[in-house]
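Lab notebook: predicted structure, single chain.

Context: the supervisor wants predicted structures on file for every construct in the current expression panel, including those that have not yet been purified. This is the next one on the list. No modifications to the sequence; it matches the entry in the shared construct table.
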Amino acid sequence: MRITTANIRKRKAKGERFAAITAYDVVTARLADEAGVPLILVGDSLGMVVLGYSSTIPVTLDDIVYHTRAVVRGSKKALVVADLPFMTYQKSPEQALDSAGRCLQEAGAQAVKLEGGRTMAPTVARLTSVGIPVMGHIGLTPQSVHQLGGFKAQGKNVEQARELIDDAQALQEAGAFSIVLDGHCRSCRSTALNGTYFAICFLLAFFRMLFRPSFTGRFRPTTGSGAQKKPAAEGLGSGLFRLLSGRRERPTPPILRAQRARVERVGGSEGCCKQCVPRSLPEV
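Prediction complete. Output recorded below exactly as produced.
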């Protein structure tokens, strides 16, 4: 049985911390599900991570439906949230209703996510009124990258922080079960919010596997053995997993390690530096 939005609210009420991740395919969804991740987002970030676009704006609703189907097939327990792409909900609440309906009916998602604060509150209220769970998204909103002037942190001053808090409260009153606070200043976090909010952006699964950023932990599908065997993602709530803050030495990405190993194995050609790969292999 899948985790529901009610389960997410209960975790918030108990003060439990939990992992959340993006996935775009069966394999990643299955790994996240086996690791005990309770919530998977099929984000429009797939446009940049998988499809090679420079932003999330070119992503279509058909793209989201296609990849959400794969994630739903690959997971059994996690709550799957489908991201509504650019211009598939901004025109009117009725347009958002049609788009969200496709995500639930055709793709099998259990909830949808949309960007925007107070301006999107009526749309969130319309969706929740017909039984469609909604996750809000404020702060750094990638679909507004041109208006924001790039992927920049928001809420750096008092005025911006208050606006973000007002946006979050508006979404909560409209019925959003959770809110993503993306690219924000810590001062924007408000204890006045009763709903669940994620203080950081969802971890992009492909980015995590390729580059292993220093601010993330390392999960395996399960930890322990026998009766003590449990999903590794449960460690987030029990304190076994910590998000590390502050500066520390960043590990070398696997791609660079493999490239350097190949250079060392082949050796440098005469007259060039050791970082260069020779045009021909040396004689054995």
